[in-house]
């Protein structure tokens, strides 16, 4: 399966096979930028702001930098409203749909 | 005091991208060329950190005619390039400024080297007037800013040694964010902030002193000044907001009884020097609470969408604001998006941090 199939075939909010790997990696990135180990175990529907992960503007910017380094996806440029930062699942779907083709071999 | 400025090349020192300009590389940005020469004249050293082949550094040195004490060209992390430059030149990181047009590069350096003064190209264009870049200028204001710079260094040293969370450090430092209606004497400083803030400015255009002064006295508006201090020092006014209380619609008619009123914040701004000190979260929480207390059902903050102000938009999203309409296509870069937040309903108002003090205002 290619990254494109995973992204385009999955209904909004659902995470395909490629998405599972992205989810796992995003959990690691989130626990790194927040400095909280327990964030590595959150459910996909956990909110990234507010009572969920509790991102703020500094940790949120660091997350976007880490996502850019790891996945080559510039979230801030592609989602001007930053709607994809609602939950872990919405971010994973957003990133999965934009993975460069090198991960599809 | 800044002793060395490390510059990005593409779309910073050069008005374009070195590798994507065909046989003839771009010219230097004229305003930054003026800054380069002025700072060089003052004895401040320049260096380059660029994701380009080494020829790009040679080209910049030739075309600007300014000497560069170090040049790091390559595709690694910019924070590593800065570390090597800092080691080579035998400087402290707090004596170094870094200028880059790219948000991700700036954030990466800010996170890895918090002592480095990280600037946008627009900030750097203004830098020759800053005391940090003015070794010979000893004015009262310059001395005061020099002291603030020393305070900043002491604060960062303690923050590094502090084991707890950022919030714990802010409390430990005795941080106070004071949010209150501005006095008329605050207007020049608020005007200056509206000119000098880029990363944390929703409007993207300066607010004139006359305009601010007239809105200061208007019943339908509120002009807010945000002050910051802690046990390391007093930073004075570091932010501001201009509020339209929505008492009358465009035709001057007040909404009828029962009609939902909304507050609109036409300008929200914070100095980049106050980053990481709990100011923005406190200001947004205070605005939500005061708007709700004034009977408004919604708080609106039109915010320009640029790659300059991603941290500001993140703070809005974190405080429960959503850009509307959510429909595609959304706002294009350089256009304002209307960020809005309901003040009644299931989403609780953001909590005011315990280091914030909000004055009563009518």
Brief rundown of the structure:
The complex is a heterodimer of chains A (105) and B (362). Chain A is an all-alpha fold and 105 residues long.
Describe this structure in words.
The complex is a heterodimer of chains A (105) and B (362). Chain A is mainly alpha-helical and 105 residues long. Chain A has a single domain, classed as Non-ribosomal Peptide Synthetase Peptidyl Carrier Protein, Chain A (Orthogonal Bundle). Chain A has helices at residues 3-9, 17-34, 57-71, 75-78, 88-97. In chain A, helix 1 (3-9) packs across helix 5 (88-97), helix 2 (17-34) packs across helix 3 (57-71) and helix 2 packs across helix 5. Mean pLDDT of chain A is 79; it is low at 1-13. Chain B is α/β, with parallel strands linked by helices and 362 residues long. Chain B has 2 domains: 4-133, HAD superfamily/HAD-like (Rossmann fold); 168-358, 3-Layer(aba) Sandwich (Aminopeptidase). In chain B, 35% of the residues lie in helices and 22% in strands. Chain B has 12 helices and 13 strands. Chain B has an 8-stranded mixed β-sheet with strand order 11-12-10-9-8-7-6-13, with helices on both faces. In chain B, strand 4, helix 5 (103-112) and strand 5 form a beta-alpha-beta unit. In chain B, helix 9 packs across helix 10. The two termini of chain B are 42 Å apart. Chain A binds chain B through residues 35, 49-50, 55-58, 60-62, 64-65, 68, 74, 76-77, 80-83, 85, and chain B through 103-104, 107-108, 111, 165, 275-276, 280-281, 305, 307, 310-315, 317-318, 320, 322-323, 326, 330-333, 337.
Q: Assign the CATH class of chain A.
A: Mainly Alpha
CATH class of the largest domain in chain B: Alpha Beta
Any idea what the radius of gyration of chain B is? 22 Å
Shape of chain B: globular
Any guess at the CATH architecture of chain A? Answer: Orthogonal Bundle
Order of helices and strands of chain A: HHHHH
Give the terminus-to-terminus CA distance of chain B.
42 Å
Structural class category of chain B: alpha/beta
Count of structural domains of chain A:
1
The secondary-structure class of chain A comes to mainly alpha
